[in-house]
Amino acid sequence: MDGTIGVILSGGQSRRMGRDKAGVMLAGRTLLDRMAAELAPLFGEVYVSVDRPGRYPGYRELADLRPGQGPLAGLEAAFLRTGAEAVFLAAVDLPFAGASLAARILAEAGAADACVIRRRSGEAEPLFALYRRGCLEPLTACLNEGRRAVKALLDRVDCRWLEEDDLPELDLERALWNVNTGAELCRAAEAAGEK
């Protein structure tokens, strides 16, 4: 999609993991390297959203304008620091989320401000999703109000909900498996075929 960039959210404080999630190794590559490799074929530019510059040499970094304010701050910086018309956000701690799922989200977005997967449980998956520039004003308002949850933004924009049942060919349990703790990393390593 022209004018769309990929932005990898680098994982914030990683308190539950106890170390920088982006640098965690899985199947011989860091989580950051895995996600960057998946997004690169789809987007002309792939950036890493960081709270402070200089964290990931060799990657194009987008430093938050509001460090410590979470994913919405990363999305705000992506729009304000680039000329992108749309941003595909991808959390670094989704080691099995790949290009096929991202491409499906792009294809299904239509003209909506955002395109987000909604699970059968009703839970949204806003950290592997597409956001258009029309989100900038409402997301800035959310941040100014101290509302940091992405759900606050989704309540204010035209969101194309991509229902889990619309994606029967994709294994969403695996693709959207979030790795936040050492125990979850061990399970992900087993799923990736590591001992």
From TrEMBL:
<keyword id="KW-0963">Cytoplasm</keyword>
<keyword id="KW-0808">Transferase</keyword>
<dbReference type="Pfam" id="PF12804">
    <property type="entry name" value="NTP_transf_3"/>
</dbReference>
<dbReference type="GO" id="GO:0005737">
    <property type="term" value="C:cytoplasm"/>
</dbReference>
<feature type="binding site">
    <location>
        <begin position="9"/>
        <end position="11"/>
    </location>
    <ligand>
        <name>GTP</name>
    </ligand>
</feature>
<keyword id="KW-0479">Metal-binding</keyword>
<dbReference type="InterPro" id="IPR013482">
    <property type="entry name" value="Molybde_CF_guanTrfase"/>
</dbReference>
<comment type="similarity">
    <text>Belongs to the MobA family.</text>
</comment>
<keyword id="KW-0547">Nucleotide-binding</keyword>
<keyword id="KW-0548">Nucleotidyltransferase</keyword>
<dbReference type="InterPro" id="IPR029044">
    <property type="entry name" value="Nucleotide-diphossugar_trans"/>
</dbReference>
<dbReference type="GO" id="GO:0006777">
    <property type="term" value="P:Mo-molybdopterin cofactor biosynthetic process"/>
</dbReference>
<feature type="binding site">
    <location>
        <position position="21"/>
    </location>
    <ligand>
        <name>GTP</name>
    </ligand>
</feature>
<feature type="binding site">
    <location>
        <position position="93"/>
    </location>
    <ligand>
        <name>GTP</name>
    </ligand>
</feature>
<comment type="function">
    <text>Transfers a GMP moiety from GTP to Mo-molybdopterin (Mo-MPT) cofactor (Moco or molybdenum cofactor) to form Mo-molybdopterin guanine dinucleotide (Mo-MGD) cofactor.</text>
</comment>
<feature type="binding site">
    <location>
        <position position="64"/>
    </location>
    <ligand>
        <name>GTP</name>
    </ligand>
</feature>
<keyword id="KW-0501">Molybdenum cofactor biosynthesis</keyword>
<dbReference type="GO" id="GO:0061603">
    <property type="term" value="F:molybdenum cofactor guanylyltransferase activity"/>
</dbReference>
<dbReference type="GO" id="GO:0005525">
    <property type="term" value="F:GTP binding"/>
</dbReference>
<protein>
    <recommendedName>
        <fullName>Probable molybdenum cofactor guanylyltransferase</fullName>
        <ecNumber>2.7.7.77</ecNumber>
    </recommendedName>
</protein>
<dbReference type="GO" id="GO:0046872">
    <property type="term" value="F:metal ion binding"/>
</dbReference>
<keyword id="KW-0342">GTP-binding</keyword>
<feature type="domain" description="MobA-like NTP transferase">
    <location>
        <begin position="6"/>
        <end position="150"/>
    </location>
</feature>
<feature type="binding site">
    <location>
        <position position="93"/>
    </location>
    <ligand>
        <name>Mg(2+)</name>
    </ligand>
</feature>
<keyword id="KW-0460">Magnesium</keyword>
<dbReference type="InterPro" id="IPR025877">
    <property type="entry name" value="MobA-like_NTP_Trfase"/>
</dbReference>
